[in-house]
Amino acid sequence: MREGYSITLEPVEDTFEELDPIYRKHYSEMTARLEGIGIVTSPYNPRTDRYIHASKAGGLLGFVLRFNGKAVGYSNIYLALDMHNQDLIAQEDTIYVLPEHRNGVGKELVKQVLKELKGRGVKRLDVSAVTDLRVSKIWERMGFKHSAEQMTYLF
After folding, report:
1. How far apart are the first and last CA of the chain?
2. Full strand arrangement of the beta sheet holding 70-81
3. Quick one: how far is CA 31 from the chain centroid?
4. In order along the chain (155 residues), what is the average pLDDT of each group of 10 residues?
5. Rama region for 4: left / alpha / beta (φ>0; ψ in -120 to 50; rest)
6. Alpha helices in 1-155, H assignment, sequence order
7. Neighbour count for residue 97 (Cβ, 10 Å)
């Protein structure tokens, strides 16, 4: 881990307020990219109560990337039992690092997520590159496999 950086697993309910400015920044970057391809999204309005409920129930893990104690990135990961075979699986809700801290620590964040999930017996983690499509190349070099093609239909 680079000097000054740390990654901790913290309850989402304990960090939501602190991370909210970063959540907003992430959402803004994501919606800007989507709008560039004609997909308009609704304004940022998270279902905070559902995030907190999922975290307290053990179904949502919150990883926080800090630089000298200040939050500069995060990853929220949902855990569930696969409906087809009851394997414990994970789905990335978000993985994000502030632009000024994109210096390799995002890869360290993903490695920490993978280590934690493996330790919990998770069989599979599904991720989607939405904010910056280039990140899929990094994930591929880390061992992720292309397993689906995501499509969006607008109503």
Report:
1. 44
2. 5-9, 60-67, 70-81, 88-97, 124-126
3. 16
4. 94 96 96 94 96 97 98 98 97 96 94 98 94 86 91 88
5. left
6. 12-36, 48-56, 105-119, 135-141
7. 24
How is residue 101 annotated by DSSP? G
Q: Torsions phi, psi of 51, nearest 5?
A: -60, -45
Tokens of 67: 């630089």
CA pair distance 2, 103, nearest whole angstrom:
9
* Alpha-carbon span 120 to 92, nearest angstrom: 15
Collect all residues with Cβ–Cβ distance below 8 Å to 2 and sequence separation of at least 6. 103, 104, 105, 108
Is 0.90 surpassed by the pTM of this model?
yes
C-beta separation of 78 from 54 below 8 A = yes
CA distance 26 to 32: 10
Place of tokens 């070099």: 141
